[in-house]
Each structure stands twice: as C-alpha cells, then as structure tokens.
Amino acid sequence: MAKKGSRLLVGLICEVCKSFNYVVEKNKVNTVSALKLKKYCRKCKKHTPHKETKKLD
Hints:
Elements: E1 7-14, E2 20-27, E3 36-41, E4 46-56
Antiparallel strand pairs: 1-2, 1-4, 3-4
C-alpha cells in the first residue's frame, strides 16, 4: 500500500510559453510557499523559470 503523508504531487508550468512540463512531489509541511524552479523547457529549448500549478491527485 502507498504511504499516506505530507507529500503532494504538483505540476510545473513554464512561465515563458505556459507549457506543462513536469510533475514533482512537494512536502506541504516544509514547503508552504509555491515552488518556483529553473528547469529545462522542451518547447523553448532553454532553461526557464517554472512555477507550481494546481495540485494533482
């Protein structure tokens, strides 16, 4: 069985082209603010800032 805990799945969307690129886990206890990471975007073909979108189930 899967563990129940404080980790959530969240999506990361490119701030430049608005394409959905990544799904990552976030610990809601330790990281209460929205994630903002610099990741590679396949559509832009460069590293761009990505921000957290809605929570995934």
